[in-house]
Design goal:
Blueprint: E1 3-8, E2 13-16, H1 22-31, E3 39-42, H2 48-60, E4 63-67, E5 72-76, H3 99-106, E6 108-112, H4 126-134, E7 138-142, E8 145-149, E9 158-160, H5 166-176, E10 181-186, H6 192-203, E11 207-209, E12 215-220, E13 227-230, H7 235-248, E14 251-255, H8 263-270, E15 276-279, E16 282-286, E17 304-307, H9 318-327, E18 330-336, H10 346-351, E19 355-360, E20 363-368, E21 376-378, H11 383-394, E22 398-403, H12 415-421, E23 425-429
Parallel strand pairs: 2-14, 3-13, 9-10, 17-18, 21-22
Antiparallel strand pairs: 1-22, 1-23, 3-5, 4-5, 6-8, 7-8, 10-12, 11-12, 14-16, 15-16, 18-20, 19-20
Helix pairs in contact: 1-2, 1-6, 4-5, 7-9, 7-11, 9-11
Subcellular location: Cytoplasm
Catalytic activity: phosphoenolpyruvate + UDP-N-acetyl-alpha-D-glucosamine = UDP-N-acetyl-3-O-(1-carboxyvinyl)-alpha-D-glucosamine + phosphate
EC number: 2.5.1.7
């Protein structure tokens, strides 16, 4: 077990250059399996899931050169021998996005039933099975494995998703690029990281119309080429460091070349009395004198933050706003419309002395403004919950411990180093 020891109560100040978005890097890595041409990826973070995928590529026989200090990863899958086999990494949800590339390249892929990821609740595999079958794959089960085999002749497909799932949308796009012709997905996810995967694929020669909208058309007109692609800043990490400024009474600027993704996120910060400014490629938050929940004109309703698929507030960012709610004066309702297991960690906040009420699996109310005290808390296996607990601990004078804080390493390389550079007193301990 790895924990974070936090001596809080200091305003955090400074400038940060965030890493790339894990949720963009992983599908792009999976997408590289669709081409035999060399691919160069820049600004690649050295995080757990990237390490696992790179190791898997090595098992297959790919040629890999990774300059971790320069954050440059070079991949050449043309060296994968015929009949190669590899065990898909089971400790991450992204494994399922390697199936289109493996079917295209090897004709078969095997996956354990229980694909791991953050403990957010039920995350079904059925929509992915429907996608693979729509493109002609055969899917069967044996023992604890699901076996996917490429059909005799793949065909284009048109699907209307019941739910705008990110990974299902990405698997549809990747699968569409393994067959000739035009395919279309309706009710597609349109998060920035989905758009980023599409941008990479366009550089490889794919034709994708409608990225960033709910209707996307994909066409493979020729063999995909290689690309030299640089990942953009992770909007989750940008928002997280801005929230750290707000919760600690600090002043933090974060490099951000895409402020167009932040209009609703900025409005959400404003509900706590915090203002975000974007200027010259940087986003900055100077904490107000005190955090206070903005009142409603409809006075009998509680101010709320609703999290749902983009363009709503991302569910992945809800924990950092819950941390603000625990500190801000007033009541705030948080509504997670995506995961039924995304709010159960609120009991850890009570160990700091925070007052919360779980209305049901999807709605939580914070009653903020009361004094909080240092505590030892335990993070579930959810990346930004570990960060949210770290945020609260950093805002409290005294020594706190965040147990099981390892999920942070899944998405944010050097996060604690950045934290320390902002003036925090934080360290990893066994």
């Amino acid at each position: 077990m790895t924990a974070l020891l936090v001596r809080g109560g200091k305003p955090l100040t400074g400038r940060i250059e965030p890493s790339a978005n894990k949720n963009a890097v992983l599908p792009v890595l999976c997408a590289t399996l669709l081409t035999d041409a060399p691919v160069t990826l820049r600004n690649v973070p050295e995080i757990t899931d990237v390490i696992r995928i790179v190791a898997f590529f090595g098992e297959l026989g790919s040629t890999i050169a990774w300059d971790k200090e320069a954050k440059v990863l070079e991949i050449d899958h043309s060296t994968i021998p015929a009949g190669a086999k590899g065990t898909l990494p089971q400790a991450m949800r992204a494994s399922i996005m390697m199936i289109p590339g493996l079917l295209h390249r090897l004709g078969e892929a095997r996956l354990e039933h229980e694909v791991k990821g953050c403990t957010l609740g039920a995350r079904e595999i059925d929509p992915h099975v429907a996608v693979f079958r729509a493109f002609g794959a055969e899917v069967s089960q044996t023992g604890g494995q699901i076996i996917f085999r490429a059909g005799a002749a793949g065909q284009p497909a048109r699907m209307w998703l019941e739910y705008a799932s990110v990974t299902t949308t990405e698997n549809f796009i990747l699968s569409a690029l393994t067959v000739s012709g035009s395919s279309q997905i309706v009710n597609a996810a349109c998060e920035p990281h989905v758009q980023e995967m599409c941008t990479f694929l366009e550089q490889c020669g794919a034709r994708i119309d409608g990225k960033g909208t709910s209707m996307v058309t994909v066409e493979r007109t020729a063999e995909l080429t290689g690309a030299d692609y640089t990942f953009i800043e992770d909007f989750h990490e940008v928002a997280t460091f801005l929230a750290l400024a707000a919760v600690t009474g600090g002043d933090i600027a974060v490099r951000n070349a895409h402020p167009e993704h932040f209009m609703l996120i900025d409005r959400t910060f404003a509900k706590f009395g915090a203002e975000v400014r974007h200027e010259d490629g940087w986003s900055r938050l100077q904490a107000p004198e005190r955090l206070r929940v903005e009142g409603n004109f409809t006075s009998h309703l509680i101010t709320k933050v609703e999290a749902a698929p983009w363009p709503y507030v991302p569910a992945d960012l809800l924990p950092i706003f819950i941390a603000l709610g625990a500190r801000a004066e007033g009541q705030m309702m948080f509504w997670n419309k995506v995961y039924e297991g995304g709010l159960t960690w609120h009991t850890e906040l009570s160990l700091f002395g925070a007052h919360t009420l779980l209305c049901d699996p999807h709605r939580l109310i914070t009653f903020g403004g009361a004094p909080l005290a240092p505590a030892t808390v335990t993070s579930p296996y959810i990346i930004r919950v570990a960060i949210a607990l770290l945020m609260v601990a950093s805002s409290i004078e005294g020594e706190s411990t965040i147990l099981d804080a390892d999920p942070i390493r899944r998405a944010h390389p050097g996060f604690v180093d950045n934290f320390v550079n902002l003036g925090a007193d934080v360290q990893w301990v066994k």
